[in-house]
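Record type: monomer structure entry
Structure origin: computed from sequence
Chain ID: A
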Amino acid sequence: MHSEIQQFLSQKRTRLSPQTVKAYESDLNRFCAFLQDKSISEVTAQHIESFLKHIQDSSVVRKNAYDKSANTARKLSTTRSFFKYLHRNGFIELDPTLKVEPIRVSNRVSEFLSPEEKQRLLEAIKRTATPYYIERDMAIVQTFLYTGIRLRELVSLKVTCLDFEGQCIKVVRKGGDEDKILLPNEAAKFLKAYLEVRPKSDIAYVFVSKRKRVTKDGYGISPSEVYLIIQKYLRKAGITKEHLGVHSLRHTFATDLLRLNANLVQIKELLGHKNIATTQRYVHVEEKDLRKIINQL
């Protein structure tokens, strides 16, 4: 099965981002290990369902049922894509995933930071960050808050992607599409301050770490490191909302745009969404804002 997986991934590399392909590879390698020595022609819907149950039962590190079901649903999505490819290219006669029931993932309301909490987060960085990391960590957080950039997009940023003159950041979106993120002056200020003290080397990535995440372009900070950085400062700021993390900063960006009277279409474009229904999950209206509106009647 390893050979078919590599052929499938080679095809995906032409259309998808490296991060998405890496996630596909991780899911399929785990699926392959679960099946042990079975060939692709031997795999049945029952094998796939057993694998998904194994994923669901072994996700002990995840906090809640939403995270478990979302993780399992992603594994099923990857498996469906793989077997669809196998069937379309004549490797198998029947696609076993067609008999597998979809996994229901309930909608979860993601948290976001209020203006006061956002200020507390920034103050926590100023107060507690070490001199070695303060410019880097402030640049990371401000880039999230002022651009709405995704975690994977941020850790993949290279110095050549920063266009200060054109006031934009070049990124590869989900699905492998190249795009530009508008770069506000405030975010640019913190990025420039960080680049002034960034270790001088031939590392291609903007954000670097003492821990070496080796790639063909050198080493840069990893997604897990950024996650831990954000969690650390949220904790030091005394912000303890449930489900608060890196992605919440993207929700905060969208909600701030709504406060500034941006419409959904504008927010959709700034977030890089393809579907406006996705954008609707990112905007949050607080009761005090609703009260302010009705008091104007």
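Annotation 1: Confidence is low (pLDDT under 50) at residues 213-218.
Annotation 2: The radius of gyration is 22 Å.
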